[in-house]
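pasting for the record
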Amino acid sequence: MHVSTRFRLALLIYGMVNAVVFGIGVVLVLGVPSLSQWALQLMPVVVALSFILAAPIAWFLAPRLRLRFWRTQEARERREREDATLHHGHGVR
């Protein structure tokens, strides 16, 4: 059975992402006065949503943890800078 690197990274950071999403939800529920009166009913919703939302967020973040992603980004930005310089006539001799 082959498991992709992206899946492994997503699985690795899932718990951290879950904690952050849960923390944001708790701060919102307890920090907003109109929501804090419903805290007992909303906390199970925050827990469930944090479990559900953490998976796609971790999946989205996983490739950004790889060095290859940043090398590609840097190369793309470098190419765009060079193209912009050439199109404005500064790079032509």
